[in-house]
Structure formats: structure tokens, C-alpha cells
Design a protein that fits this description.
It contains eleven helices and ten strands. By secondary structure, the protein is an alpha+beta fold. The protein folds into three domains: 123 residues, no CATH class; 120 residues, Beta-Lactamase, CATH 3.30.450; 95 residues, Beta-Lactamase, CATH 3.30.450. Strand 9 and strand 10 form a beta hairpin. It is rod-shaped. It starts with 14 loop residues before the first helix and ends with a helix. This is Single cache domain-containing protein. Keywords: Cell membrane, Coiled coil, Membrane, Transmembrane, Transmembrane helix. It is a multi-pass membrane protein.
């Protein structure tokens, strides 16, 4: 995986920075082209098979050097790329100097044609790299803005669930009939009341009632939760049992994660129990949310227990997501509380991961929302195809032009 984690700007590189990188790649391309001309003239005049083999290698390098690097230039650290480019350029310059000394059979007119092609290539390189950098920069900005909108929409959907859960739990905690049944220890009678709230709610699908220690005493959506300790799910559940209403996005018992809220049951200022309401988060829920906000792949990462639910799942992807989350939750990025972008590779497919940190009303960093989109984005694919055609065409032109010129002179 070739990737870096940008901090100052979502895609890290400005138009000027992208253009400089592409100019460096283009300079190497020009040198490869010059070397190709020289080597082929060596083959024409010296009938050297080594020169022909060298020409073929240079022709292949001309195609794959820029195409192999351009889509990933912004994800390579600039010092590394500069060293790589300088080393490659130095080798090519040495090769060109050596070949110019060896090949002495190019007539003046052919040299004039060759010299005329160099400015043409320079103009093509400068304009081509600028256009490509501008297209990529524009595509990146548009993609980032669109992704940020999707992330905010997904965040809003989760916030609506938490708000409804907070309303439901607060009403239940204040309901005299509910409180009487709870204080009398008639826990089985709490199930119908809780189920009624679930049926009336639009977003939540689970309610759990615990004693003062966090042990579940009633859970109409799943009786197997009875006698389970909910304090193990995360710090938000613990805060509720400490007497503080709190929104939750933490570990689940029957599903990987839950999103909701909890309200303590208080008696004379003392916590005697708690009511929790939530939406159970599994892959089906995440897939439905992704479809609702209009993205292909979506993930939710819980920071407190380092678990995530996503529409994608494999061991390679799991490692990439964990690395992405580790970078997102470092101190500097958490303080900024903004969106993050990184490329990651899973099963041979490169994706752009965009993440946004979710916080609760106390500023606690609950989770990371992640949108995964194909890289390069669709808007950039046509420019990559155009670059491929242009690069291949110029390479073929350079490859055959010495043969054509020499044939015309005979």
C-alpha cells in the first residue's frame, strides 16, 4: 500500500505541488525519449541488436514510468519521490552522454529534426502535466466536498437515532408506572412497557433495563441479554450508571456495535438502575445506511473497543482500517476534529477512505465514520485514459520516427 496521511488539507497537495511532481515525471519521460532516439539510431547505423533491445526497454519504460507513478504521486512522500526521480534522471543522463559519444553517424539534418522534437515534447509535457494536475486537483476537491457531505449526512442519521433513544429512555425513566414496577422488582412486567416503546419508535429496535450495577434485568428484544453486564460495552454505559445521561456508540452483545442513549434511574439522587435504548448495528444496517446516503461502501469504527462494522470485510481490509483509525485518532487530528483521507488497498483494489470523527455532547471521541470509494475516482478515469493514449502515441512516434527518417533519406 502506497499511502500517506495528509493533515493540513484533505488531499495534502495543492495544484502547484501536483504540477511540480508531474513535471519531474515528465522530465524523466523526455530523457527516456531522448535515449530512445539515440539507441535506435545506434541500431540503424550500427546494426546492433543490443541497441535494439535497449530501444525496446526504453520504449516500455516511457509508457510505464509516468503511468505507473502519476495516479499515486500525491501519496508518495516528496523527499522519497525526489530521490527516486533524481536517481533515475542521473542514470539516464549518464546513459545519454555515453550513447551520444558512441553514435556518430547521425547526419546534421536528422540532428535538426531531433532538436525540433525536443521543444515539442517539452511543450506537450508542460501543458499536459498542468492539465492533468488541474483535472486531478479539481476532481479531488469535488470528491472531498461530496464525500464530506455524505459523511455529514450519515452522521446526522446516527444522531437522529441517538436523539430518539435519549427521548425514549428519558420518558421511561420518568414514567411513574415504570418506576413502580422497577422498584418493586417486578422486572418481567417491564418487558411489555419497553416493547411498547420499541413498537412506537421509528429508529430504535432495542431497549435494555439494568440494575444499579449494570446487570440487565429486562430486554424484550432479546431475553438472552438478561443477567448480562452492560458496563463492559464501553465508557458511555458506565457514565449512565454513574448518574449521567449519555449517548452511546459502543460495543454490542448480539451485534458488533450499538448506537443509542441511556438515562439513569434516580431515587433521592442515588442511581438505582438505568434504561438504554439503541439501534443494533450490523452489516445489514451499515449497507442500508450506505444506500440511503448514496455511497457504495461505508464503515463505522468504534474507538473505545477498536471494532468496526463495514460493507467490506476481509483480513487485508481489517488491517488497513485499523491503521487508518490509528492515524485518525492521534492527538493532533482529534483536536482538529475534521475529515481525513487516505488510500488503502484490499484484495488488489485501491480505495480512497474518508473518515470523520464522531463526538458526544461531552466532547468524547466516540467513533469514526468511514466512506470507501474507488480510486481513482470516476471523474479522473477518463483523464487517465487520455494520458495513456497520449503517452503511448508519443512513445510509438518516437520509436518509429528514426526509422522513418532514415528510410526517407536513403
Amino acid at each position: 500500500m502506497i499511502a500517506s496521511f495528509p493533515i493540513d488539507y484533505p488531499y495534502a497537495l495543492s495544484l502547484g505541488q501536483l504540477w511540480v511532481r508531474y513535471l519531474l515525471a515528465g522530465s524523466v519521460y523526455i530523457l527516456l525519449g531522448a535515449g530512445l532516439w539515440i539507441v535506435l539510431h545506434g541500431f540503424i547505423f550500427g546494426k546492433s541488436l543490443k541497441a535494439l533491445a535497449g530501444g525496446l526497454l526504453l520504449g516500455v519504460a516511457m509508457i510505464f514510468w509516468p503511468l505507473g507513478l502519476l495516479p499515486y504521486l500525491r501519496f508518495i512522500k516528496f523527499p522519497v519521490y525526489l530521490i527516486l526521480t533524481a536517481a533515475t534522471t542521473g542514470i539516464l543522463l549518464f546513459l545519454d552522454r555515453y550513447l551520444w559519444k558512441r553514435v556518430r553517424s547521425i547526419n546534421p539534418e536528422e540532428r535538426k529534426i531531433a532538436r525540433r522534437m525536443v521543444p515539442l515534447l517539452v511543450v506537450i509535457m508542460v501543458l499536459g502535466t498542468f492539465i492533468f494536475a488541474w483535472l486531478e486537483n479539481s476532481s479531488d476537491r469535488n470528491s472531498y466536498q461530496e464525500t464530506s457531505t455524505k459523511l455529514e449526512e450519515a452522521q446526522s442519521q446516527l444522531a437522529e437515532i441517538q436523539q430518539e433513544a435519549a427521548t425514549v429512555t428519558a420518558q421511561m425513566a420518568q414514567d411513574p408506572a415504570f418506576r413502580k414496577l422497577f422498584k418493586n422488582g417486578n422486572y418481567s412486567a417491564l418487558n411489555p412497557l419497553a416493547q411498547k416503546e420499541i413498537n412506537a419508535a421509528q429508529l430504535i429496535d432495542a431497549v435494555a433495563i439494568t440494575d444499579q450495577n449494570g446487570i440487565t434485568v429486562a430486554a424484550p428484544h432479546n431475553p438472552l441479554l438478561v443477567n448480562q453486564d452492560l458496563t463492559v460495552l464501553g465508557p458511555a454505559h458506565v457514565r449512565v450508571l454513574g448518574g449521567e445521561p449519555s449517548k452511546t456508540l459502543e460495543l454490542g452483545i448480539t451485534t458488533p456495535l450499538v448506537v443509542g442513549a441511556g438515562t439513569p434511574l434516580l431515587e433521592n439522587g442515588e442511581v438505582i438502575g438505568a434504561v438504554f435504548a439503541a439501534k443494533l448495528i450490523d452489516r445489514a444496517f451499515v449497507a442500508a445506511l450506505a444506500q440511503q446516503i448514496g455511497v457504495e461502501n461505508l464503515g463505522i469504527y468504534c474507538n473505545c473497543n477498536k471494532l468496526y462494522v463495514s460493507t467490506i470485510s476481509n483480513s487485508q481490509f481489517d488491517k488497513a482500517v485499523q491503521n487508518f483509525a490509528k492515524l485518525a485518532f492521534n492527538e493532533e487530528n482529534v483536536a482538529e476534529n475534521k475529515s481525513f483521507i487516505q488510500n488503502l488497498t484490499t484484495e488488489g483494489v485501491t480505495l480512497t477512505a474518508a473518515g470523520q470523527i464522531l463526538t458526544d455532547e461531552n466532547g468524547q471521541k466516540l467513533a469514526l465514520l468511514m466512506v470507501f470509494s474507488p480510486y481513482p475516482p470516476k471523474e479522473l478515469l477518463w483523464s487517465l485514459k487520455a494520458t495513456t493514449v497520449l503517452t503511448t502515441g508519443i512513445t510509438i512516434l518516437l520509436f518509429f520516427s528514426p526509422l522513418v527518417i532514415h528510410h526517407l533519406k536513403e
